[in-house]
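2024-03-11 09:14:02 DEBUG pipeline.ingest accepted 1 chain
2024-03-11 09:14:02 DEBUG pipeline.ingest length=107
2024-03-11 09:14:03 DEBUG pipeline.predict start
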Amino acid sequence: MQGLKEVLDAYPKDGQGGVDLGGWSIAEEKDGYVRYEFKSGLGNFAKFFNGNKPFVDDFELEVGDGFASIRSASRVGASDFSVNAKRINYIAASLKAKGWNAEGVKA
């Protein structure tokens, strides 16, 4: 869990690849589970569709014996413009650099 938490804590607060420009925070944490909230930057979509508030995505991580599973999903809307996939792929690449077997996802 420690190596995984290091990768997540190193995720840029100002976003990466045009996503998560509103930062992130830990919303819930308990033994073997953590839920992060990632926020979009305030762009035209947020201004028009979300009352000038950033879109919020939930990123959940559960760790068990020999596995780690993640889920990243938008709270609002039918499309996320591949933001969740970009986030997962960024984290997967960081884990691979640490020697993990971490597959990304297709956008």
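2024-03-11 09:14:41 DEBUG pipeline.report Residues 83-97 form the longest helix (15 residues).
2024-03-11 09:14:41 DEBUG pipeline.predict end
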